[in-house]
Every structure is written in C-alpha cells, then in structure tokens.
Amino acid sequence: MSENKIKVLLVDDDEDDYIITRDTMDDIPGRNYVLDWSASFEEALELIRQDKYDVYLVDFYLGAHNGLELIRQAVEEGAKAPFILLTGQGDRETDEKAMRVGAQDYLIKGSFDTYDLERSIRYSIEHAKSLAEIQKLNAELEQRVEERTQELAEAIKKLEHTNESLQEAQREINKALQKERELNELKSRFVTIASHEFRTPLSTVLSSASLVSKYKTEQDDEKRQKHVDRIKSAVSNLTSILNDFLSISRIEEGRIYNVPTTFSLEPFCREVVDEMQGYLKKGQKIAYTHHGEQDSFTIDKQLFKNILLNLLSNGSKYSGEGKSILFSTAIQAETLTISVQDQGIGIPKADQAHLFTPFFRAQNVTNIQGTGLGLNIVKRYVEIMGGTMDYDSELDKGTTFTVTFPNTTEA
Which residue spans adopt a coiled-coil conformation according to this UniProt entry (predicted)? Predict the structure, then answer.
C-alpha cells in the first residue's frame, strides 16, 4: 500500500455503477483513496489473490455468479482485506448472509452517500485489524504449544537416563502429556470464545454507528440515543471480556496477591450493591442483609469486592426481569460467610461438575453473553484468600453460592 493511500477494488459488472462509486469516492474529504474496477468474477478473484488492495466493494449480482460466492471463495483462499457487499435491498436476511460468508459490512446501492461510503470503509478496515489481532494471539498460543512440546521431548530424554523406576517415569510422562492436552484445549477455547465474543459487540458498534448518522433531526433523538446506548453497552461488554482475560493472565503468572486489611463490612457491601444498580435488569433488585453483632473483618478488600461484583452480576445475568437477588453476610467465630442466591435458570446437573472449568458454559445459557471465565476467576480468588466456595443449584429455580473466609487479623 502506498503511503497514506487506501487502495479500493470495486467488483461490479455495471460500468455506470463504477462511475457513480468513483464520483462518490472522489468527494471524500481528507482521505486519499485509489479506486480500481473489475467487471468479472474470475478477474476479480485473481486480483484479490494478488493481495494489493486494502478493501473490496463487491456487487451482489455478478453475471452468472453473485458477490456472496466471490467473498466466500476469497475468504476460504485466505484473503485478509475486508469485504463490503453492495446490494440493491437492505434486509436482515441479506445482512446475515453477508456476515456468514465473511463480509464486514454492506451498503445499499443508490442510497449511500460520501459519508456512508467513507464510514463503511474505515470501520471495515478497523474491524479487520481487530480480527487480525485475534489471529496473532492464536499464533502466539501455538508457539507456546510448540515450545512446551519441545520441553516435553527434552524431559523424556532426561527421564531415560535417570535411575528412577519405570513406573515413576511413566507417571511423569503422562502428567506432561496431560498438561499438553490441557494447553491445546485451552488455546482452542480461547480462540473460539474470543472470536465469537469480540465479533458480536464489534458488529453492534458498526451497525449502530452507521445508523446514528442517519438520524439528524430533533424528532430522531430517541432513535439516535437508542443506538448510542447500544454502542455504550457493546463497549462495556468488550471491556468486561478483556478484564476477564487479563485476570486469568495475572492469576496464571502469579501476580495476584492477598493483602488483607481491616474494614467495616456492612457499609462496604452496601456500596457494592449501589454500584450494581446500573447493571440490573428491569425490575430486579438486590436484597442485602448482615447477620451477627460483629461488623469489622480482616480480608483483602479489592479481591473481596471483585468476588461480590462477579457473583451479583451472574445473579442478575441469569435471572429474568423483576427477580430478586438475595445477598447476605455473616460473621461468626472468626469466620466470614457470604451468600448470593438468585431466582434464575439454574445449572443442569450434568454441567455442574465442570462449573469452574475455564471457558466452560452450561448448555442452557446459549442466548446469554459470557466468556465462561467468571466463576473460575472467583474460585481462584477465593483459594488465594484461603477461603472455600460451595454452591447449590436447581434447574429453572435458581442457584446459591456460599463463600467462607477465615479472619486474617494480624497479631
């Protein structure tokens, strides 16, 4: 790509459409775009294979073929630059078909202006960069697998020259192989979850940002605000996903420390409940109670807060509108017990054994967003703090999590 130039290839069998697109692109201010044109399916596919364009505008109809076929084949062959489908009709079915074959966006012919075209190109390129970053993470994970495999081979050679018994050697080999399988499985789960969870909010930001620009009058304020709220929610989801990945990374690297402090428990928990209000569904409420005369307790304040926020957030996420979440704390015999009980969907019996496994999600949460990391993070925080965690769940009736901590008051 030439410096400061964005090279665009238009694939359209109608020269008039090329002229219209060229004139529209020439009106884009502050950007230096270079537009080339291909009128045939075969020629366009060959140009895409040369990988010299930054974005492709593809017409839906291409003679005996269509744009969806071109995009699908190009993506299967490894095309990295983003595709934008040009269609004569805008409907959800066309949008979904375009996204399934690998398009980043679509524009309705005859209705998009200079701003729409520039916005679509810019957002598609940024979206493609985000997906490329995920692929980079995947490559790094694969490199870690290769390094671990090499370490395994070296470990086996060392074991062959030791005086340990054959049974001991076999146990060590099996342990190393199991770790290898777990790392491979973790890598696959990470890539799958990250790709899916990033794509959903990014698509929301893309579509809402496109629609916001169309609402320009005061009468459209409500519609415009609706899409602004969707963008804010999507960004919040992305932040939550990244925070989960960051927390797991810090735990794995041993960079989470238990630093107990003494503080008043009840007002602190009420502050956490107040903080949660903006995340509750319509009609939901958190009912908090504290039991026992003692209120002061010594525990890591930040880790404790993270645990509460995660459990209360799950209680809201997996419960319907208008439901209550019961939250209680109790101090007795130098022990703190917290309980979070929801009235949600519950956890199937078959899934409960895997509840704290990284990236695991129960079979009945298919329509609820999440990474499957939250409870794993909570359990590991609890263990770092020297506590224990238990739960009780019944399908379609709700789940109760109970966490117990020892008082770590310094002598």
Answer: 127-189
